[in-house]
Design brief:
Helix content: 55-70%
Oligomer: single chain
Largest sheet: 4 strands, mixed
Number of strands: 4
Number of helices: 20
Number of domains: 2
Strand content: 5-15%
Length: about 500
């Protein structure tokens, strides 16, 4: 592909990403603020890290440090809005669409560009959430890994993937490891498939060099975190806060293997049923991969696709949880369903000029139909019409800003977004209630309020002042919050200085 064409394709991908996320991500400037508690927690932690707080020591959230580094960069653009996060999402989704397109070009000679608008509908799915999940931000990583693996398999004269490709994939695997290690199933499957391919092609002597280069890239992605936590004498806090916390909190205790299998199947079924924007193509694509003719898909390609997709899915859902955003990585494999549609168009509707015109009109119509489906089913578009005064956080901000040096925390929920709206860094390690079974966290949070350690508390509970007598209710209201609307309450320390 020429440099000029590459830049043209990238521009098309960026345009599709921007327009899609403009409507389907609440990080977009069409929405007053992204109210998703998960994304707000990530932005709060990322911003705090940029201000010098040490992750897992001064401030705690259980996800990986690379995620908070990305959000920290976004906070440098704006620490009070999601402008930086929106740009991050646009760049991430642009790269995803570009490599999905590159995958398509391996199998179709015409109409591959239609992959871009069809996949651009993914952010309208339920699994996308409100925008900014680690699963979403890692989509380009999986797309690049898939493309580089299949490109190698379709070049039989190569003994092994290039040094650059292996180092980059190793580095990206490290990025996944230090963002959300439960998504590593993709790389387990990809490396296993590559090993099989090297053996089948009689290049087994290349296995150790391949592993060495891949691990070298992974180490390069890990060294910055060893230095960061090492310089802060926090290696044990890092390993405890990230690995031990997640391993002990996100595994459901099951009665036996049968129940685990049933839970896994049920989770996959739920994901497929509630994300039809892309799961239709996912299902069609997997069927084609399984039963398609070998002249289109070699046995090694089929093994590689199925291994990476299967192990990604199994590892994601092996803990027995079924959060709706878990399913977004599966959208990477939807490209194969679209490829099948484009191949059929090439085979049967590309014989005359008239049929070619009809096929292109049909593909445009399919893209428009999917766009309409997305606009009418997205969980976010109904809030496009919400006015700023429907977000009580801005009213709370005006009250809090009257204090000279306000401190703040959430009680009883994840981050409701007030830290970011007010541009306040948490003064306590546990700044909100995380999705953890942790007696330490509960005791610490109760201790903060019993001792009056923070001036303001935002909560979804209307009885906090009865439980903690040091605080009084100063404002409340029904508001757009998190994924919908709810009553939100702001409490203030009674002994605090009078407001300005």
């Amino acid at each position: 592909m020429s440099h000029k064409r590459t830049w043209c394709i990238l521009a098309a991908c960026f345009l599709a990403s921007f327009l899609s996320l403009l409507f389907f991500s609440r990080s977009s400037f069409l929405y007053p603020i992204n109210t998703w508690v998960d994304s707000n927690a990530s932005l709060t932690v990322g911003s705090a890290m940029m201000r010098g707080q040490v992750l897992y020591v001064d401030i705690f959230d259980q996800r990986g440090p690379f995620l908070y580094f990305l959000y920290g960069l976004a906070s440098l653009v704006s620490s009070t809005t999601f402008t930086g996060v929106f740009l991050l999402e646009c760049l991430s989704f642009t790269v995803f669409l570009f490599y999905a397109y590159r995958v398509a070009t391996l199998y179709v000679t015409k109409n591959a560009l239609f992959v871009i608008p069809i996949l651009a509908i993914i952010p309208s799915s339920k699994a996308f959430g409100l925008g900014g999940s680690p699963e979403e931000l890692l989509l380009p990583v999986f797309a690049y890994g898939l493309y580089s693996l299949l490109a190698f398999l379709r070049t039989p004269d190569l003994e092994r993937p290039s040094t650059t490709s292996l180092l980059v994939n190793g580095f990206l695997c490290g990025a996944v490891l230090w963002t959300k290690y439960s998504l590593l199933g993709f790389y387990v499957g990809a490396v296993l498939a590559l090993t099989i391919a090297l053996i089948v092609r009689k290049h087994a002597k290349q296995i150790l060099p391949v592993y060495g280069l891949f691990l070298g890239g992974l180490v390069l992605a890990t060294i910055p975190w060893i230095l960061y936590f090492g310089l802060h004498h926090a290696i044990s806090d890092w390993l405890q806060g990230y690995f031990v916390t997640n391993l002990t909190n996100y595994m459901v205790n099951s009665e036996g293997i049968g129940e685990r299998v049933f839970s896994l199947i049920e989770s996959i079924r739920n994901t497929l049923a509630r994300n039809l924007q892309y799961t239709i193509f996912f299902i069609i694509g997997m069927i084609w991969v399984l039963f398609g003719k070998k002249q289109f898909l070699s046995a090694l390609e089929k093994i590689s696709i199925l291994l990476s997709a299967t192990l990604l899915t199994l590892v994601i859902y092996s803990g027995g949880k079924d959060y709706y955003y878990y399913g977004i990585p599966l959208s990477v494999f939807s490209v194969f369903g679209i490829i099948l549609v484009l191949r059929l168009v090439e085979l049967y509707l590309d014989r005359t000029a008239v049929l070619r015109t009809v096929s292109k009109i049909g593909l445009v119509a399919l893209s428009m139909l999917l766009l309409f489906f997305g606009l009418t089913t997205s969980r976010n578009t109904p809030f496009l019409s919400a006015k700023t005064d429907e977000y009580i956080l801005f009213r709370f901000r005006d009250t809090i800003k009257k204090s000279e040096s306000p401190t703040l925390m959430n009680f009883g929920s994840l981050d409701l977004g007030l830290f970011n709206v007010c541009d306040i860094a948490p003064s306590t390690k546990y700044f909100c209630k995380l999705n953890l079974r942790s007696d330490e966290m509960v005791q610490e949070i109760d201790g903060y309020l019993l001792s009056g350690s923070v001036e303001y508390v935002v909560s979804l509970y209307d009885d906090l002042a009865m439980r903690f007598e040091r605080y009084e209710l100063v404002d409340s209201g029904y508001s757009v919050i998190n994924e919908g609307r709810a009553d939100v309450f702001l409490y203030r320390l009674k002994s605090a200085a009078p407001l300005n």
